[in-house]
Design brief:
The chain crosses the membrane at residues 17-36, 43-66, 105-129, 141-160, 166-184, 252-276, 308-332, 353-383, 389-416, 428-445, 460-482. Residues 17-437 form the DUF112 domain. Pfam families: TctA. This is Putative tricarboxylic transport membrane protein. Keywords: Membrane, Transmembrane, Transmembrane helix. The model has no long low-confidence stretch (mean pLDDT 77). Strand 1 and strand 2 (188-189) form a beta hairpin. This protein has two domains: 2-465, no CATH class; 466-503. The longest helix has 36 residues, at 467-502. The radius of gyration is 23 Å and the shape is globular. The chain has a two-stranded antiparallel sheet. It has helices at 2-11, 14-32, 37-45, 54-78, 88-99, 103-136, 141-158, 163-177, 203-221, 242-262, 269-284, 297-312, 314-320, 326-337, 346-349, 351-372, 376-381, 387-406, 409-427, 433-456, 467-502; strands spanning 180-181, 188-189. 51% of the residues are buried. By secondary structure, the protein is mainly α.
Length: 503
């Protein structure tokens, strides 16, 4: 509690309050605009944060991340366009409620559900992250190698594509992470004679290219979309009736815990949590036939789950220094740009950052509730901005942001190459999230591997010496082996059933 009070003292300074508000506003705006997402917007703004204190920059970035979870619901409900991937599920019942004249109630349930879930998740984060950081102090190079392997393998299973495609993306990210000077021998690796590449491939231009430039190229290829009718909502129509409110309380509470613990899993946790919440509520609801036709549970549950998952994703970042999702990977980059190393020692070395960011999320959560309801009309009007103008602005920000990282023209070229690659990968239905995370985790994976082997004199047994690393490797192996085994058993069972029926 003493740490949290110190955090509020940091977060309540006028400068930090202002940037928390800016982050929450930008996050909501980003959530409303389809395609950009928190990753693209955070990548664009990395260069802007150089002149800010570390705590202020991270408070703003955190606001963008969880703010985008809020904003996506607005367009899902009013226009049937998910601003964020995590808001796809909200379209199912949210838009149907709007068509029935209950748009205001759907928006209110989404906003309040997000606020309650975010607050519950923050309380768990407040008590869980410092304890996990204490445990993480026992981690050595073998344990960090094991958790990095575990994270990458879990991610490859949860990225929404085939295992082979995911592993290809992970391999590409690890390969990009090895470019530059070897940290031990000082030998240049994969630089092909380019002196500029000796410093390595920076995360920011890659992220800007894969998400920002690729999005611009994809929009440029598409025909101008037909304008959709935007359902208007009056302020007095925002309150749900007693029945809608009563049916939403249980889903919000359940989704708060479900979403938070889903956020601890590597991968697109916010997206997965919405599907899990929707499936759970549909299974246990007394009104199953209403799902897909405007059930309030189908709006309140998923929206609560994605906000709780966004908060849960901060636990491994703040306590272990490992990002399990692309947005937290950008937060990690922001920390490293400002000379802050996240991980077990963050609580002791930089308590103003650790507790300041957590405290700011309590404040930002309240700001988002205030912003999202009265300013619904303003945010939805952003959709009327012509796409060609919007994409031109994004392209300009990408170029400026990539150059600002190292004042290097090489980074601009890297960004454009990554953008073209990202566009092609989208065409081939490859998810770039495993590549981005592997690029961030790769150097830690390599460092911990080599440090472990140096400590053991080249013996690989060191990775199984600790109970923590053994458990993580067993779990990682189970994650890879279990899906094909389950499929094999299902196939055999189906074959046996069909044979018995034919007899």
């Amino acid at each position: 509690m003493e740490g949290l009070l110190h955090g509020f003292a940091v977060a309540l300074t006028p400068t930090n309050l202002l940037f928390a508000l800016i982050g929450a506003f930008l996050g909501t705006l980003v959530g409303v605009l389809p395609g950009i997402g928190p990753i693209g917007s955070m990548a664009l703004l990395l260069g802007v944060t150089y002149g800010l204190p570390p705590a202020t920059a991270l408070i703003m970035f955190a606001g963008i991340y969880y703010g985008s979870m809020y904003g996506g619901s607005t367009t899902s409900i009013l226009v049937n366009i998910p601003g964020e991937a995590s808001s796809v599920v909200t379209c199912i019942d949210g838009y149907k409620m709007a068509r029935k004249g209950r748009a205001g109630a759907a928006l209110f349930l989404a906003a309040v559900g997000s606020f309650v879930a975010g607050t519950i998740a923050l309380v768990i984060l407040t008590f869980l992250a410092p304890k996990l950081a204490e445990v993480a102090l026992k981690f050595g190079p073998p344990e960090y190698f094991a958790i990095a392997v575990f994270g990458l393998l879990v991610l490859s299973q949860l990225s929404g594509q085939g295992l082979l495609k995911s592993l290809i993306m992970v391999g590409a990210g690890l390969l990009l992470g090895t470019i530059g000077l070897d940290i031990i021998t000082g030998q240049p690796r994969l630089t092909f004679g380019f002196v500029e590449l000796q410093k390595g491939i920076d995360f920011v231009p890659i992220a800007m290219g894969l998400f920002g430039i690729a999005e611009v190229l994809q929009v440029a290829e598409e025909k101008l979309a037909e304008k959709k009718d935007i359902i208007k909502v009056k302020l007095r129509e925002l309150l749900p009736n007693r029945m809608e409110f009563r049916r939403s309380v249980g889903p919000i509470i359940r989704a708060s815990f479900l979403g938070f613990f889903t956020g601890l899993i590597p991968g697109p946790a916010a997206v997965i949590s919405t599907f899990l919440s929707y499936t759970l509520e549909r299974k246990i609801s007394k009104y199953q036939k209403e799902f897909g036709h405007g059930a309030p549970e189908g709006v309140a549950g998923p929206e609560a789950a994605n906000n709780a998952a966004a908060v849960g994703a901060f636990v491994p970042l703040l306590s272990l220094g490992i990002p399990f999702a692309p947005p937290t990977a950008l937060l990690l980059s922001a920390m490293m740009i400002h000379g802050v190393t996240p991980g077990p020692l963050l609580v002791k070395e930089h308590p103003e950052i650790f507790w300041g960011v957590i405290a700011s999320m309590y404040i930002g959560n309240l700001m988002l509730l205030v912003l999202n309801l009265p300013l619904v009309g303003l945010f939805v009007n952003v959709l009327r901005i012509p796409k060609n103008l919007l994409m031109s602005i994004i392209l300009l920000l990408c170029v400026v942001g990539a150059f600002a990282v190292n004042n290097s023209v090489t980074d601009i070229w890297i960004m454009f190459i990554a953008g073209i690659a990202g566009y092609i990968l989208r065409k081939w239905r490859f998810s770039v999230a495993p590549l981005v995370l592997a690029l961030v985790i790769g150097p830690m994976l390599e460092d911990s591997l080599r440090q472990s082997l140096m400590l053991s004199g080249g013996k690989f047994g060191i990775f199984l010496a600790s109970s923590i690393s053994r458990s993580l490797f067993i779990l990682a192996g189970a994650i890879v082996v279990m899906p094909p085994v389950v499929r094999w058993f299902k196939k055999r069972l189906k074959g046996a059933t069909s044979t018995s029926l034919s007899k």
